[in-house]
Amino acid sequence: MKWPDEAVSAGHATTAAHPARIAVLDAIRTDRTGPVPVRLLQLSRTDDAFVRREVMDLLSSTGGRHPWPEATEAALARLADPDEEVRRRAAHLVVHAGGSDVALRALRELTEPVVRTALADSLRSSVAHLQDDPLASVRFLARLETLSAAPPQQWPQLDRALLADAREAARHLEGVGRRWGRVLYGLERERHVYAVVARLLEDPATRDIGAGLAREACHDLRAAPVALLPLLVRHCGRGISSAMAKALTTASISEAAMRTHGALIAEVPFT
Fold this sequence. Notes:
By secondary structure, this protein is an all-alpha fold. It has helices at residues 3-9, 19-30, 35-43, 49-60, 69-77, 84-98, 100-109, 113-123, 136-148, 155-169, 176-186, 190-202, 207-220, 224-235, 242-252, 255-266.
């Protein structure tokens, strides 16, 4: 049976609405012990890193609610893969196919930061108890999960801890500012969003994180572009990073921000 191999190697099996993807996923949902799932599990060990990435994605896309021991075993084996993206996708599959207990055990036993971060990210609320983890990215995710459900009296302590870990967490965790912004928005902490953005933008080492948080705020909060555009312009410096350019672009889409701060933005050389 050659068609699953061809579908995976061509990328068709992970292309939304492609007939090959529909056929593969239907075959998995119909019978996890059938020839197509068995072949995918075999392909998880192929020499082609692209194929291994695609297989990890496919096995995570089935939407099944029941554990899948064979897929879990394949994912655990790939947590030590030489390809970083394979490791990230395998971590997601461990949570998807093996459940939180298996993933937490792997998180405790492993030391590689990319895998541990990916496991913690996929575990979501199940990592809230790991606020003292030795890896900053895991601590950051744990504290964000805790903050999202914390009473107001706990906010200042968690805010300080998140600020302290943000720079180091960003080494292994993408979208630190965006994630932080979503949690603050969910808590309706608009004033705190602006204060955190200001703190992050002041330090060149965390400026891109602040820009990411500012961009998220401009998506979520109507008043954010007017409040944050002057801060962004003030801290953009001579060389504008990609994160800062995206934040400036998002803020400048606001008609209110441009009416209020149009002269400021006209001075900034960004696309």
